[in-house]
Design goal:
Layout: E1 3-6, E2 9-12, E3 17-23, E4 32-38, E5 45-51, E6 55-58, E7 66-71, E8 76-81, E9 90-98, E10 101-104, E11 108-113
Parallel strand pairs: 2-11
Antiparallel strand pairs: 1-3, 3-8, 4-5, 4-9, 5-6, 7-8, 9-10, 9-11
Amino acid sequence: VQLQASGGGLVQAGGSLRLSCTASGTIFGTNDIAWYRQAPEKQRELVAVIISGSSTHYADSVKGRFTISRDYAKNTMYLQMNSLKPEDTAVYYCAIHKGLSDYWGQGTQVTVSS
């Protein structure tokens, strides 16, 4: 399984970006799909997750601003990011957690200028 992330870039504070992550196969199903991020000199953190194909959870820092979703037909997951802040600057990674296996995308850089 391969995940290809895209959609990062440079945006001013208050702006929006939509990240996409396309899987090489139809594996979303009821697996957990998630977005993580890692800022310089910080640990990777969970941003948003869809658990068992249904319930969604968000980090407190992004609640009300970010939305995770997926399109089964396109084998693609998304992270819509609104009202971006400089502290959202990080490399964003998509991931699928399937049983004991974890699949990761290559990461896409998001930079928010003040």
